[in-house]
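Practice problem: predict the structure.
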Amino acid sequence: MWDFMSTFSSVVPDRKPNPLLDQQNIQKIQPYQRLAAYYDSLMDYIDYDTWVADIKTLVAPYEPGKTWLDISCGTGSMAIRLADEGIDMTAVDLSAHMIDIARDKARSTKLDIDFSVGNMVDFASKKSFDVIINLHDGLNYLLETSDIELFLKNTYALLKPGGILLFDVVTPLLCQTHFRGYREIFNDERGGYERHTSYDPNSQLAESVFTLKTDNSDTVDVESHIQRAYEQDDVEGFCASSDFEWWQILDDESLEQPTANTERFIVMLRKSE
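Answer:
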């Protein structure tokens, strides 16, 4: 599913401070407040069609219905592809800016998708769902075990009997290999951004700091995105303490049992009938 190294095709090693942060005025803004406009460029290495095919392969043996929820949908790329295949999609993201872009994309394709702003740990709906997906590092944005437990409890409640929850998890190996001391510079007519990414193996926290120019030459906007990596033992613990009675953890490349070289897990849990 995931070709991580292509993310950094324009990234070079750099352990020096970000020169843009020497500006006199730094405005700290919310994640994806401005970066939402660049999100599709950031994610252009992802083969969404392969992701959709793999997800359908994983859930097919259980013959789920066609009412699905994407509970951390970004700009809607997965939801749009799934809706185009006849699935009744609801899609949620914490960022209103991401949802605005997702709605515009869906309108351009004339697909009817129920987009809304919401938090994955407490999103409520009058619908119940056959499948819930949370992909592209969504769960890694939950930094505390208590939040993951709330997420699993909430998704369990949102699922129909026999429903499936499917999410991915970035591992410390991926972060240790790819996230330490890199920077990326992206320029376009909107001004672009500079990205500095670091990883602390002790806390297992990866931080990406995006610096964006503003109309004022002496001021920059800064978005900080923090994620926590999780080992397989951590993920097994989350699953075991949840209300789900069945789950499996797979390597995202092979869709088979993880190995010591697994950089990303695919986790599938099923609610009892």
